[in-house]
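Justification of resources, computational component.

The compute hours requested in this renewal are based largely on the per-chain cost of generating structure records like the one below. Each record pairs the submitted sequence with a full structure-token output. That output is archived, and it is also reused by downstream analysis tasks.
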Amino acid sequence: MTTTQSTEHRHAPDWIVLLIALIAQFMVVLDVSIVNVALPTMQRSLHFSLSNAQWVINAYVLTYAGFLLLGGRAADLFGRRRVYLSGLFVFVLASLGAGFAHNASQMIALRALQGVGAAILSPATLTIIVTTFQGPRMPKAIGAWSAVAGAGGAFGTIIGGLLTGYANWRWIFFINIPIGLGAAFLAMKFLQEMRKADDKDKLDVTGSILITGGLASIIFAIVRSTEIGWGAKATIEWFIFGGAGLLAFIIWEAKAASNPLVPFRIFKSRSLTVANIVMFLIGGVFFGFWYFLTFYFQAVLRYDAVKTGFSFLPMAVGIIIGAQISSRIIHKIGVRPVVFAGAIVSTAGFWWLSYITTTSHYFPGVIVPSVLCTFGIGLLFSPLATAATAQVDRADAGLASGILNTSRQIGGSLSLAIIGTLAASRTASLILSKHSDNFALTAGYQRAYEISAIITTIGFLAAFFIPKTAGQHH
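The structure output for this chain reads:
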């Protein structure tokens, strides 16, 4: 790493640098879940179809996942400060547009653009942390970043509920503008520029388009299968198209790209590879966790937007406590024991949630297992981030963090599509069997959480392959 433009930013206190990273990461994660509570109101306001409503979430998550690797590389090549500010600009501009959207196509297009801004911004935040904090300070900084990354999902539902209930659903997008402007001011004033010495490298835009297109096609096929069936010609064609895109991505990265988006050499680190597999599995299922619980509260238990939002408050606290505990103990006991604990606690929570009924009480039937889930994921974020970056060169910190973020987003996109499809088909079959809508919906959510528990169990088993020494030198 070389440092440029450092004179006017040299003496910024560490806490301000951390704050700059945390504000942006909070906004990015917030926008995955803030839409959930507002979606029914938004759907009525803009006359969405049900499939279009799903794409309000999928469009953001997909472009976020597909361009994260590009964002991670950009932070290394062009400098963390420049990339951070560029990502903020795109994100805030798209948020403003989404707040003024008049129909489904405008909203989906602007959500996709928001995802691109998030993909540029998010890896820059972790690059800022990894290049600022060294030694025993790094796990604590990563712990704070992990707490924000996890809690953003829960706070998104709370803030979304308040804004939808007391103001207007459009404010779930407008709120990003003052926050983004504040973050931009702090970054311009205090953030020191750092980038790789060799800036002859070019960004691999082709690779980014191939992986985004491939993933989008596969997820589109999964989501459409609820309407037209798994065996339909169009479903199969989209799967083939998506598979071809991902295969082309692998070939391009291995052979054709002069500066690959994903240099496969980085996966020589077993610690990074296994951390990504665990994040793909366990981190991924949490997209469905927020989504299904939001609809369970509103559609089955008949909570309004505000009550739904506040119902998630203990879950946000669970993530924050889990992240803080893990960041304090990983350098003492290593990454693996903390990952094991997080996976076991999450699995127990998901399995318990699979027993919800149409008449479950918030306490203890819903909130206790939900807090177990979020406490578990809070435990996991910090050790996985530490394992992913522990054995890579500092110059590749942005790439490593981008890959880990991508694993979580891709896992989230795929698990939400697959679990959502299986849950919807269970609900549809029960409605055809003349069961009540409430019973059928709840049975679908039960199925979703059963599958989530199975996936987190597989993640627990995968964690056995994390090296015992991973992260201990921090």
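The chain has two domains: 9-192+261-465, 205-260. The two ends are 20 Å apart (CA to CA).
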